[in-house]
Amino acid sequence: MGLADDLKTEVARVFRDQWTTRDGQVVPDTPDLKLANDGVTLDATVLYADIDGSTSMVDSQTAQFAAEVYKTYLLCVARLIRSEGGTITAYDGDRVMAVFIGSSKNTAAVRCGMKIKAAVTNIINPAIKAQYSSNFELQQVVGIDMSSLLVARTGIRGSNDLVWVGPAANHAAKLSSLSEQPYSTFISEDVFNKMNQAVKVSSSGKDMWESRTWRGKTVYRSSWFWNVPN
Amino acid sequence: MGLKDELSQHVADIYKAVWKERDGTVVPDDTSLTLANDAVKLNATVLYADLADSTTMVDGHKKFFAAEMYKTFLHCAAKIIRSENGDITAYDGDRVMAVFIGDLKNSRAVRTALKINYAVSYILNPEQRTFYTGSNFMMKHVVGVDTSDLFVAKTGVRGANDLVWVGRAANYAAKLSALPHSYATYITKEVYNVMIDELKVTDGKAMWEEVRWDSFDNRSIYRSSWWWRVD
């Protein structure tokens, strides 16, 4: 059978097959799902963390330096996501996707976004200055939204081949591509309404978020950070 | 040691460490690199294939329908990439990154792009409409292709699939795949200049149009809505 017939058969099978779905209590992993139309539905908060200006960084810096910036950013993002109980669900070069579930998923995701800002400001940029006496400053953006998600396998790679279908996955990715420094955390109105007061108002009583309109929706942005515990 | 100290230590180590580099002749995977500053340099062509308007699709259709669109698009893109000896290097939800190296890497990557266009137009959309009679949904996609030196290192973010690809082609191909879906394929001049004539002209007709990349830096790029038959 040639490639065209092979593709036709597989495509028709995906459209024809009935879905089996179940509600998930944990973030699924590739082995939890079958390759057929098998799905898990979850109420989840999605976080995307993305380097702002990576093309100009790659164009203007050495590959070695740019690779170090990617490595240190991704290291901090991954550790902070795990420290807040999130699961890293995808990673493609310069952006990381994570999923938070459970009763305080919005607060945890937002605190994580604000801790990533702290790591960039207080750990990564000072380390760049210390090593290279360079004026380069890493900038990044985190986008967060919540919704119900359908998780299914795509069969595209051995591992890491899940597809996350739901508005939160798309909107969080789009929010993380906004470039409005020094604002580095963008969240949907649903997330803002559900999150805890501690991540809304600072210890000195200042409002840490401001609303703005984005594609006809209200979203909130912040330039505040949350200290990474010592 | 608290989390902050641990991160500070680790970050400083990465900036301090000296890179060990070697030239690569195969596409590395995460077992061929160590977590320290170890890198492979490659001359490669990068392809990104992106499902266009996925936000609208997810907002406007049932999740199962959208999931089927993702699954079928990604399946066809992956099979076609492999049939042209490309390596799938990253995948994040709705877009696929692939790397081509060796002889005719640019022509193979561009033929992959044109074959993905064929699969969407002549396999995916017809099958989808046959099954969902009355559906007026049309899947749209965009493929971007660029070529450059790449510097590949391990990030340690996840167990698998955690390489970082540093180089112009990785960024430009991703950016090209986010251009308007009125054309299915966008490639840089560097790719166009070296690809075989068969991919440039059919029956005397130019398959590509040179345009300015006005949403970026106005450099010349080429766009096409032609397809290449999948046999």
Can you count the helices of chain B? 6
Can you tell me the overall shape of chain A?
Answer: globular
What gap, in angstroms, lies between the N and C termini of chain B?
Answer: 60 Å
Based on CA atoms alone, the radius of gyration of chain B comes out at: 19 Å
Based on CA atoms alone, the radius of gyration of chain A comes out at 19 Å
Protein model, in words:
Helices cover 37% and strands 27% of the residues of chain A. Chain A has 230 residues and is an alpha+beta fold. In chain A, strands 1, 2, 3, 4, 5, 6, 7, 8 and 9 form a 9-stranded mixed sheet that branches. In chain A, a hairpin with an 8-residue loop joins strand 5 (140-153) and strand 6 (162-165). By secondary structure, chain B is α+β, with helices and mostly antiparallel strands. Chain B contains 6 helices and 11 strands. Chain B has helices spanning 3-16, 54-60, 63-83, 105-131, 168-176, 189-194; strands at 20-23, 38-51, 87-91, 95-100, 141-154, 163-166, 185-188, 201-202, 205-206, 209-212, 220-224. In chain B, the strands form 2 sheets. In chain B, strands 1, 2, 3, 4, 5, 6, 7, 10 and 11 form a 9-stranded mixed sheet that branches. Chain B has a two-stranded antiparallel ribbon with strand order 8-9. In chain B, helix 3 (63-83) runs antiparallel to helix 4. The longest helix of chain B is centred in the middle third of the chain and has 27 residues, at 105-131. Chain B is globular and about 60 Å long. The mean pLDDT of chain B is 92. Classes of the chains: A alpha+beta (230), B alpha+beta (231). Chains A and B meet through helix 1, helix 2, helix 3, strand 3 and strand 4 of A and helix 1, helix 2, helix 3, strand 3 and strand 4 of B.
